[in-house]
Amino acid sequence: MRILHFSDVHLSLDKKAATEMLRDKMMDKLSSIIDSPNGKIDLVIFTGDFLDKSGKDDDGNSFANLREGLNCFVDLFVKPLMKLLCLPTDRFIITMGNHEIIRSKASDDERILKNDAVEFKNFYWRIRSNNPVPWIDDFNQFEKDFYTDISENHKYSQYQLYSCHELNLDG
C-alpha cells in the first residue's frame, strides 16, 4: 500500500497563483511516480492547514468565509489530485489544522485550554456531551459534506474534536 501524506498548503486569495504553481509541480512529480512500476497511490491523507489564517488576509483580500476557502481548496487542489490518482473521495482523508479554526469564535475556549485546569475539566465535559464548539463547527460541517457520498467500504464517524475513518482498502 502506498500512502501520500501532505499538509500545510496555506491557501489564501492573495497566494492563489502560488498555490496553483505548487499544485502543478506536485502533480507533475506525482505523474512520474504513478507511471512507474508499483507507483499506484492507494490513499491520500491531508493533515490540515488547507487555508492560511482561516482564509483571512491581512490586506482584506479574503474569502467570504471559511467554507468558501475550503471549497476553493477542494476545487483547486483535491479534485485535480483525486482525478490524477484515480481515487474516490473515500480514499482522501482530511483532518483539521489550526488554520481552520475560526479564532474569533474561540476566545473563551482558547483561554480555558491554555490557562485553567478546573475550567478545562468543564470544557472537556461540555465537548463530551456534544455541545457545540463554535470555533470548529464550520470545518466539521465542511468535513461532513465532503464525505456525503462515500462507499460502504468507508465507515466515517464525526465527533466534536475528531473524526474516525475505517476503510476497507481491498474493496
Q: Please, could you describe this protein's structure?
A:
The protein is an alpha/beta fold and 171 residues long. The protein has helices at 16-34, 66-85, 107-115, 117-128, 134-146, and strands at residues 3-6, 43-46, 92-94, 154-158, 163-167. The strands form two sheets. The protein has a three-stranded parallel β-sheet, with no helix packed on it. A two-stranded antiparallel ribbon has the order 4-5. Helix 1 links the parallel strand 1 and strand 2. Helix 1 (16-34) packs parallel to helix 2 (66-85) and helix 3 (107-115) crosses helix 4 (117-128). The longest helix is centred in the middle third of the chain and has 20 residues, at 66-85.
List keywords for this structure.
171 residues; alpha/beta; three-stranded parallel sheet; 5 strands; 12% strand; flat
Nutshell version of this structure?
The protein contains five helices and five strands, in the order E-H-E-H-E-H-H-H-E-E. It has 171 residues and is of the alpha/beta class. The model has no long low-confidence stretch (mean pLDDT 81).
- Major sheet summary line: 3 strands, parallel
Shape: flat
Count of alpha/pi helices: 5
- Average pLDDT number: 81
Query: In sequence order, what are the helices and strands, one letter per element?
Result: EHEHEHHHEE
The number of E-state strands comes to 5
